[in-house]
Amino acid sequence: GNPSVLLIAWDNAGNPGISAPLNPSIYLEAGWNLLSYPLVYEDNLPVQLFSDLVGSWTVLTWDPISGSYHGKDDSVLNPGIGFWLKLAESQTYSPIGYSAHDARVPLAAGSNLVGVPLLKNVNWDEVWVIPSRGDPMKMQNAVSAGLVRGIALGWDGMEYFNVKYTPGYFEPLLGYWMWATVPVLLDFNYHPVGP
Fold it and tell me: pTM for the whole thing?
């Protein structure tokens, strides 16, 4: 049958709250799909995560440090990491696992493949950037400060689109190219504290 996801909410003190089963799914086209895996499941190895796919498939992850791709045997699909999935046949896919506790995604200087480590849409303006030195700032301020470029490119199967303009938000299960000038953290669920 279809796998399901158990979503557990935590309060600010880290206490588990209400749990609700989810069954997220995404339709994947034959050919290349730019995705991310927002859940935690065992070792998050592609062979485990995609064992139910029909037909042949391959995964490529991007290593921003070396500037090269790694294949499915050398990849771990942790929440927030984007990857390419090539399918021989179009099909619907339902991920399995548990909700990630951390909504932060590291960016190296240069090109990065990322995704939302949550099961919800996140508006471009709601993403915060946390530099290694200095205070967290909204995405647009980080763009103005030159820490990140003001684009995030998704792939619709035919061409790239800039998330900032269309649709204006990051979607779970999809992957995006992003660029940073220095190492930073993206926080897709930041809550400023203070006056």
Answer: 0.85
CA–CA separation, 45 and 41 (whole Å): 8
For residues 184 and 129, give the distance between their C-alpha atoms in angstroms, rounded to a whole number: 7
Local structure of residue 125 (DSSP, 8 states): G
Closest CA to 59 of 39, 87, 81, 79: 87
Quick one: pLDDT at residue 195? 57
Q: Each residue of 23-64: pLDDT tens digit?
A: 588 999 999 999 999 988 888 899 989 999 999 999 999 999
**Cis bond before residue 21 (omega within 30° of 0):** no
Cβ-proximal residues to 155 (8 Å cutoff; 6+ apart), any chain: 32, 33, 34, 161, 175
The b-or-e profile of 140-169 (16+ CB within 10 A means b, else e) is eebbeeebbbebbbbbeeeeebebbeeeeb
pLDDT of 79 reads: 93
